Amino acid sequence: MAEIAMQFDIAAPRDVVLAALNTHDGLTGWWTTEVDRDEDEVLLFDFPGVPEPFRLRRERADRDRVVWTNVGTFPPHWAGTWISWELADQPADPGRTRLLFRHGGWQPGTEEGVPMVAGTWAELIVRLKDYAQSGKVQPYFVKAPEHTA
């Protein structure tokens, strides 16, 4: 079964990186401007031009690891996948964070989309890194402002 895995070193303390992964302000700071939560505490990620939100249930969120499971049917190739963010202090500098990202659980027949998804994740994680290091809000996906007459 295919799995995407990437490791990044981030010049920010672990609690800053954790907040970027685990809070509304954090997630909208680097990923998408449209993040909500439903009554079951499932995170809803809306993206411009996408017909319905991605539905990710937060399974774990502590100092060492954040895990989400896709509980929606959209996008179809993400159905049943999971996303894991493992956080550790960098060995040479405990004020910096080593992040191991993994996205797995791809069902047979969906692996052809993995390279495209991996490329998008790489771009997103660079945004996450920049946000954690600088605090500069720069989400990758931005909803266009609505026009009023």
TrEMBL record:
<dbReference type="InterPro" id="IPR023393">
    <property type="entry name" value="START-like_dom_sf"/>
</dbReference>
<protein>
    <submittedName>
        <fullName>SRPBCC domain-containing protein</fullName>
    </submittedName>
</protein>
